[in-house]
Amino acid sequence: MITAIAIMALGAIVLGAALGYASIKFKVEGDPLVEKIDAILPQTQCGQCGYPGCRPYAEAINKGEADINLCPPGGIEGVQRLADLLGREVKPLEAEEKPKAVAFIDEQTCIGCTLCIQACPVDAIVGAAKQMHTIVDDLCTGCELCVPPCPVECITMEPIGENLDNWKWKYPVIELKKVA
């Protein structure tokens, strides 16, 4: 009995070591530059840049297939940060920059069709079929993708007032460098 347990324990150790080796040897990592570009983008997943999300847009920028000025939610600050990272020229935004906003559902008008839920790329809308829906403000990125599919036009975009939680959206992040 003790021999069987010892053999099973030894087998578990050997299997664990083999799996650990395989996970290290065959680990696929993303391009570090794509990671940096993606970190600058606002993660709204709105598609206003012409790509289905921030990561595909970052990959296209990295390959030279997309300009750095296609992201309205990132604003001109985002364009500046991308230009600094990539050593490119700052260009004006292709689309109009809008104030940051979140979706609001008029719950008296909502018919519970779920079309807005299906359109939301970040799952910021909760509700059930034929029941009233609502927005989880903390999750809403303001992408506006929920507005067009609503058949009763009960969704509006409400501007977000500047406060301590969101003031960084308006101003670029300043990185301090240590002086030697």
UniProtKB/TrEMBL annotation:
Residues 1-23 are annotated as: Hydrophobic. Residues 29-88 form the 4Fe-4S domain. [4Fe-4S] cluster 2 binds at residues 110, 113, 116, 150. Residues 101-130, 131-160 form the 4Fe-4S ferredoxin-type domain. InterPro entries: 4Fe-4S_dom, 4Fe4S_Fe-S-bd, 4Fe4S_Fe_S_CS, Elect_transpt_cplx_RnfB/RsxB, RnfB/RsxB_Proteobac, RnfB_subfamily. Binds 3 [4Fe-4S] clusters. It is found in: Cell inner membrane. One of its GO terms (molecular function) is electron transfer activity. Keywords: 4Fe-4S, Cell inner membrane, Cell membrane, Electron transport, Iron, Iron-sulfur, Membrane, Metal-binding, Repeat, Translocase, Transport. GO terms for cellular component: plasma membrane. Gene3D superfamilies: 3.30.70.20, Electron transport complex subunit B, putative Fe-S cluster. It comes from the Bacteria. Its cofactor is [4Fe-4S] cluster. Its EC number is 7.-.-.-. GO terms for biological process: electron transport chain. [4Fe-4S] cluster 3 binds at residues 120, 140, 143, 146. [4Fe-4S] cluster 1 binds at residues 46, 49, 54, 71. The complex is composed of six subunits: RnfA, RnfB, RnfC, RnfD, RnfE and RnfG. Belongs to the 4Fe4S bacterial-type ferredoxin family. RnfB subfamily. Part of a membrane-bound complex that couples electron transfer with translocation of ions across the membrane. This is Ion-translocating oxidoreductase complex subunit B. It comes from Azospira restricta. The lineage of its organism: Bacteria, Pseudomonadati, Pseudomonadota, Betaproteobacteria, Rhodocyclales.
